[in-house]
Structure formats: structure tokens, C-alpha cells
What does this fold into?
Amino acid sequence: MSTDRRMVAMATAGLVACGALSVPVVASQAAPDGALPSMATAAPDKATPRRLLLSADGPRRVVADNHVRFTGHTPKGRKMTVALQRRKATSQGPWRTIATRTAAGEFRMRALMPQGRHAFRLSAPAPGPDLRSGGVTLRGAEAPFTALTMPQQQDSQQVLDAIANADQSVQIVVYQLGAQDILAALQQAKKRLAANDPKQPVIRIMTNNQWYSQPKSASNYAYVSKMAKALGVGSNGVSDDGVVQFNYTANNFSLTHQKTILIDTRRPDGSAYSSADQLPDSAQ
It folds into this structure.
């Protein structure tokens, strides 16, 4: 077995009675002499398992609310209905069934991973005591985003503050403009970003260009014109200082029903980053 794909084997001795633990992880060092061998060295079909087996496909630390995938195996390839169960790893509370599957032999399941450390196992009814696999513990890391419920004032202010305090760029794609307070935030952003002397526009706004309702269309055009004028944007769609650019979206599709704001995802001079890993910490 190669030393860069080893198993967590310390806990397996206590789990043999109720199942087998098989979770591949990347180790930073080779295992010491005398360490228990990986239980994955023998393929399940060759090991002729008498218990349910469960292993995690992929890393043991994942983003919360993402799907995690598991590989399971039934005893001797026997067809049975199995339940994927979960509980907090630090709790001795009851296991909660989160998915079921009827399978024979090797099969795969997936489930959403909540934040925190959680243990997963397989369980299936059998004559006598239920069959159960050993536990697989995974950690759900905090998601790299915050969900905001709009237009509650507190959440709205977070968006306005992000625009007003941008250090490098503001990019907005929105179905319809009409919020009066966003203009003040963009005016403040323009003052900040003009100090960077950008060579390309760093405040870029796109809004939908056609509607099924003419009254809505007229009101949007009126507000966009008002906002563009307040930001110094001329008939060519760009402000005199080159900081702000307005565009309507193309008419070759019906609606641009998008609502996206990107902060600091372009360089201070207005040029694009070549890859996401170059983005500054202020990007959001």
C-alpha cells in the first residue's frame, strides 16, 4: 500500500463488533512500523464481508450543505434495504435516517453535509439484531458565503456597505433597477475607486433591456437614466472619468432575470484577473 493513501485505523479495533471503518485520508507522514494495515487493502468482494461496509468518497472535510458521497457494500452481495444514518459526532443521541436504498453488493449514496462534525453509518434490518456498519466521521466546514434575506433593512445595508466600501471594483447585473439607496452607495464607490486612476471602467452595471410590461420598462429606463446621469455617464454609456460603465443586456433572449453583485473581482486598473486564486481577500 502506498504511504500517501493511508487509513485512520486507531478506532477500528473498537468498531469491528458492529462494522468496519473504511475512510481513506491523505496522511502527512508514513505510518509508523507496526501500525494496523488499512482495511481497504482487501477489496470487499474478496473479503466476503459479513457486515455492512461504509466509506466516504473524497475528503473528510467538506463545505457544509454540499453533497457528500458514500460507497456502501452489503454482506456477500445480498439484496437488502439499507438506511444511511447520521448523528453529531460529539453526541451519543439517536441516529437519524437521512436516506434509504435497496441494493446488493457495492452501491453509492449521497447526502447533504451539515456544518460541524457528524458521524454516518449504514443500518439494515436482519434476523436478530440489525446489521450496522462502522461509523464514518466527516466535518462540514463553514460555507464561504452568507445568505441574506432581502429586502430587510439590516441585510440590505450589508449590500449597500459592500458597494460603497469597494476597494477595486463593483460589477452589477440586475433584472431591474429601482432602489433609491443604491445610487448613494455607487456615488461613494465612484469617489473611492476614481482614486485608483483606473484605465478601464471599474463600476460596471448591466440591466435588463426588455419587459413584457411596458409600464415596467418605462420605469426602469427612467431610473437608469437618472442613475447614469448622477454618476456622470454620457450617451456612450461611460462616465467622463472612465470609472463607470452602463449597459443594457442583449435582446436576443427575453429576460435577464439575474441579480448579481461582485465586489473587488477586477484589478484596481480595471483589468480582469486571470484566475480566481488571484482575487484579493476583499473580493465578495
